[in-house]
Amino acid sequence: MPHAAQHPSRQPQFVQVYHEDQEALRHELTLGLLEPQAHCSPKFLYDALGSRLFEAITELPEYYPTRTEATIFKSHGSAMAQAVPRGATLIDLGAGNCQKASSLFDRFQPQRYVAVDISVDFLRDALECLQRQHPTLEMWGLGVDFSSGLQLPPPIDDLAQGPRLLFYPGSSIGNFTPDQALAFLRTVHAACGLQAGSGLLIGVDLAKDTGVLEAAYDDALGVTAAFNLNLLLHLNRLLQADFRLEDWRHLARYDTVLQRIEMHLQARRSLTVRWRDDQGSARERRFMAGQSLHTENSYKWTIAGFSTLLQQAGFRDPQHWTDDAQRFAVFWAAVSRPSTNGPRF
Ligand code: AVI
Fold this sequence. Notes:
Elements: E1 13-16, H1 22-34, E2 38-39, H2 48-57, H3 64-83, E3 89-93, H4 99-102, H5 105-108, E4 112-117, H6 124-133, E5 138-143, H7 154-159, E6 164-168, H8 178-191, E7 199-205, H9 210-216, H10 223-239, E8 248-255, E9 260-267, E10 271-276, E11 282-287, E12 292-299, H11 303-312, E13 316-322, E14 328-334
Parallel strand pairs: 1-5, 2-12, 3-4, 3-6, 4-5, 6-7
Antiparallel strand pairs: 7-14, 8-9, 9-12, 10-11, 13-14
Helix pairs in contact: 2-10
């Protein structure tokens, strides 16, 4: 490792690939609002206030996933460090404040850190601060929308010739349907490259008692309700819509057959919502009392089910670590076995 003094002014570098297309967003939202079961993508939960409300959710007593995942990293960190490649390019999907990945730097000793989020603006402060703490580690901020597939842009794809460690914690995979999750994992598998030993370290929430799950998504303080309702304020801005918060209630129900929490916003009375579509045309939708806007799915997996999914996506020999109550699991799955006898020809 080069000495810190050799890189007195090392700075993170940034590449912004994604550019928000307001018209496309308005088109997507209009289509979803006009479906028989109105729905919208959970990505609209995360405006500036929504992102802060989500951070508050992770501290709630009922919301066990974040805390439990942290316990698993703490208890099994050294076993994980044995499994993952050393000196890898660590690619952190949905990095946000970069806290989870950076807590693993000492154990995993990456050669390069690539923090990925939808906008480099979310990454700038965190990466600049992290760079001061780790002056010799090469750092990149990458702004891409990887929700519909992950492709590394040329400067990063070309640089990361050694092993790659893709990191996707937080059970965000649960916000995809199983079909979407499989398609997404296939693109992650491709992004791992061909180097032996590269792979994916991913956090997955496990199926469990309905009461525990519903409390995690409908907490006593009402933070998750605020997180869900805030989506309507976001839609009002994006669509010039006239949703009124007092007309809607937060609902979170676990479907034991589909193994998913469904979050909805349910109309408290019959009402009509009006908005402007991507062409600027006036649109409206009538909701009867009790009808809803479906805002999020959060799928819960079994160990066996998720291992199979990883294998279907092309990964091999998945291994996993859980907490004592088996609430949550962290999986490691490699693209191929690391070669122990040098390169094979
Ligand atoms: C980001 N994602 C993994 C969270 C989850 O648990 O599905 C989002 C969330 N929705 C309500 N509470 C938390």
